[in-house]
Amino acid sequence: MSTLAWTESLVLNSPKLDTTHQEFVELLNAFGAALDGGGDALPAYHALLAHTEAHFAMEEDWMARCGFEPQNCHASQHAMVLRVMREALRYANELNDREPLTILRCELAQWFPQHAEMMDAALVFTMEQRGFDPVTGLCREPVAAGAAHSCGSGSCGG
């Protein structure tokens, strides 16, 4: 059983980000399969966590290059997800409690599509508006730090 299906609704037409997102879904599904298989799911979880850390760091680098405020709601959401993921790993390692990993699997599967369709889509829109190339890291229209809304969306209250 797949934890999260890759669908066209997750495609943001940003090849580097779409590839990273597809890898996230694949790693989440591999983690879910490891849980379902009853074996040790920690190696799959470690792979998912390492990918997620790199994935979020990449997006946050793009945000910085496009002028997002350093403490924006998009990056804050990344930090919250990583805190929860690391805490679930701590429970598994220090307390031998795997239940948070099982819960997190479902929570990530529910969270990710909404995050991608809202916050990541707003990031892609901002990058396009500013002429930012995620491959080269160059921005056609550099802006001063703090010039973007907190998450790149006009609907953000932060």
From TrEMBL:
Assigned keywords, A-Z: Iron, Metal-binding
Protein name: Hemerythrin-like metal-binding protein
Domain of life of the source: Bacteria
Family per similarity comment: Belongs to the hemerythrin family.
Hemerythrin-like domain sequence ranges: 16-122
UniProt GO MF annotations: metal ion binding
Organism: Roseateles saccharophilus
Gene3D superfamilies per record: Hemerythrin-like
